[in-house]
Write a structure and sequence with these properties.
Elements lengths: L1 H28 L6 H22 L3 H25 L4
Helix pairs in contact: 1-2, 1-3, 2-3
Length: 89
Amino acid sequence: MMEEILMTLILSAIGGSVVVSGITEVVKQNSKLSGIWVIVFALITGVVLFGVIALVFALPLAESLLIGFLTGWASVGAFNSYKQSKGGN
């Protein structure tokens, strides 16, 4: 049972990284957010997103917050990798 919950969270993190990356990019373009604050914002967004998901669907909170942290971290890394491959700054 616990393995199924964790697998669901991990699969959600894959989709969540796209959402967190999108939110981070929109905020970044419409504010003066830059540098380390982009990473901090993505991490907080991931944690809040998965914290809310955990509370709404009665999932384990600690695991959800960890997945949210990893999602935020992955979204920043994925966005930076994409941006570098396109020749952006």
